[in-house]
Amino acid sequence: MSAHPSHSTNRAGIGGVSQGTVDATVAIVDELARRLEQMEADQVDLIQSNLQHLRELAVLNRMADSLNAERGFEHILRDAAREARDILGSEGAVWMMEPDRDGQLRRLFTADGEMTDINIPAEVGDLFERVVREQPDSPLSMPHYNPEDDDGLYLALPAATHRHLVAVLVVHSKDIARLTDSQYTRLLQSMLRQMAVACENARLFDVLSEMVIDVVVAMALAVESRDPYTGGHVERVTAYALMLAGACHINDQQLSVLRIGGLLHDIGKIAVPDAILRKPGKLDPEEFRIMQTHAAVGHQIVSPIPQLAPATPVIRWHHERFDGRGYPDGLKGYDIPLLARVTAVADTFDAMTSDRPYRKGMPVETALAEIQRCSGTQFDPELAELFLKGGDDRFAAAITDLQHWRRRKRDGAHMGLAEFLDLHLPKALS
Fold it and tell me: Cα–Cα distance between 149 and 428 in angstroms, integer?
């Protein structure tokens, strides 16, 4: 019988390791490789998910910072439109649409700002009307009407509080996968909820601010009514100041401040005794000194009111002179704020052309000649020159313009507070 072992299928492999052991080891290695690959895939998914959450937080934080910066209604809508475009990517298009009380389109914002003349696609208009009518909780989508167009998709989402619909966001993208991704729609909805609350707060702020302004303006007009010889003075001064400011190409924000400053420039006369305020003749030196206090007193009255504080330079310094001989602080030249220099010209012109118990008002030509004579001493020479240009009919037109503006406000026509007094700049710039 042979002493050599027989050859079998289970013979030892290289190094004495059996084939079964090798196979088992290979299987274990393959399983470990598969698990490692799965772990790497899961890790990539986790990283992408975390990155998406970070993107969402970044968007919401940017919106929160913007909303906390005392932004006005239109600024909020514009910023939200820009954020929506950034969420969708550069290929996306957005329309932020504000309905009026009747559900009709009032204003339209794109990522580039407010648009007045723009032809919106029919799909956008239809989605807007559906959201206004149905006010759905979930997004509404719509493909192109024209099948020959690209395969993009329109999506509409409401921006609403529990009280009312604030705006409708309509977006369009050729990337349908992204537009229908729940992560993106959830982010858009979170942003719109923030935006809707901020818009409602901005509207409430506008209402409260206008109430404050109305009360203080009423006080100023009541003060004026104590003197029967100066009726309409503050309105005329405001109208002439706005006319001159327009010739200076002063921006809308400054015009809004000037409008309030003009109406309130004499509010400090509330502290002047009737015996002085209503005296039918010229004031003696002591009476004139008391009358002069109205500029500083007006500043003290208005400055604690945040809604009116931007107008205090007009109130305090409208009696300063370009040569430094004015009151209450003796400011000189361009140290006097521009709006106060503008109001000084308007105030003096109206004082000269208005009737007083001790004299008749000057003819317009005489008053203008006096302004020319005092150019560079009492008045800013550049402003004086601008005030002298144009026909006499511009003064009546300026008063009519102001009356028209006040009538619009009184009749309840929608006017953003920025038209009245711009209070929505970031604090660092105000």
Answer: 47
Whether residue 126 is predicted with pLDDT greater than 50 in this model: the reply is: yes
Token pair recorded at residue 263: 């109406």
C-alpha torsion angle, residues 192, 194, 198, 199 (rounded to 10): 10
Helix (H), strand (E), coil (C) string for the chain: CCCCCCCCCCCECHHHCEHHHHHHHHHHHHHHHHHHHHHHHHHHHHHHHHHHHHHHHHHHHHHHHHHCCCCCHHHHHHHHHHHHHHHHCCCCEEEEEEECCCCCEEEEEECCEEECCCCCCHHHHHHHHHHHHHCCCCCEEEECCCCCCCCCEEEEEEEECCCCEEEEEEEEECCHHHHCCHHHHHHHHHHHHHHHHHHHHHHHHHHHHHHHHHHHHHHHHHHHHCCCCCCCHHHHHHHHHHHHHHHCCCCHHHHHHHHHHHHHCCHHHHHCCHHHHCCCCCCCHHHHHHHHCHHHHHHHHHCCCCCCHHHHHHHHHCCCCCCCCCCCCCCCHHHCCHHHHHHHHHHHHHHHHCCECCECCCCHHHHHHHHHHCECCCECHHHHHHHHCCCCHHHHHHHHHHHHHHHHHHCCCCCCHHHHCCCCCCHHHC
Phi, psi (rounded to 5 degrees) for 18: -70, 155
| CA dihedral (301, 305, 311, 312) positive or negative | positive
Provide the token pair at 367.
């008053």
Distance (Å) of CA 270 to CA 14, 265, 277, 303, 309: 111, 12, 9, 15, 18
* 47-94 pLDDT per residue, tens: 665 555 555 555 555 555 555 545 567 778 888 888 888 777 766 788
Max mean pLDDT among 18-22, 176-180, 278-282 falls in 278-282
Question: Residues 294, 283: contact at Cβ < 8 Å?
Answer: no
C-beta separation of 242 from 255 below 8 A: yes
Please report the domains of the chain, with CATH numbers, ordered by start residue.
Answer: 49-203 (3.30.450.40), 226-429 (1.10.3210.10)
